[in-house]
């Protein structure tokens, strides 16, 4: 009987974990802006990417390594902001699962207003991806335009986490 109960708990644990990985919320720019402002006293890494962007896909393993390294640090959080279209949500979900993305992924469903929100994130951002922004207590501390190496990402996180 004990083994059956253990097996049941194990099964429920896997089911809950898979359910968390099986969904991605779609948000508007204002919602993302609020999330950034609410991450007080944390280093928040916000990476803008898409499943169809080769440099984005290339750098994601580095982001997952860094996310894994700092996941237990209460002062660190990472959000991956997909710029894929809302109609491609299933492809994004499959990508998350296939690439084992462990950071939180949100789908920014605000393509029509890109010319409004891109300069609000960074005046020097020309709209190309990947782009990574680093915030501390809701204030932007670093902007990286383009692909980041693991070393660049690690240095920026280390520098701003302390």
Automatic annotation (TrEMBL):
Q: Which InterPro entries match?
A: Thioredoxin-like_sf, Thioredoxin_CS, Thioredoxin_domain, Thioredoxin_ResA/DsbE_sf
Cleavable signal peptide? 1-22
Pfam families per the UniProt record, alphabetical: Thioredoxin
Query: Which segments constitute the Thioredoxin domain?
Result: 10-162
Superkingdom of the source species: Bacteria
What's in the keyword line of the UniProt record?
Redox-active center, Signal
**In its UniProt entry, what is this protein called?**
Thioredoxin-like
Source organism of this protein record = Chryseobacterium arachidis
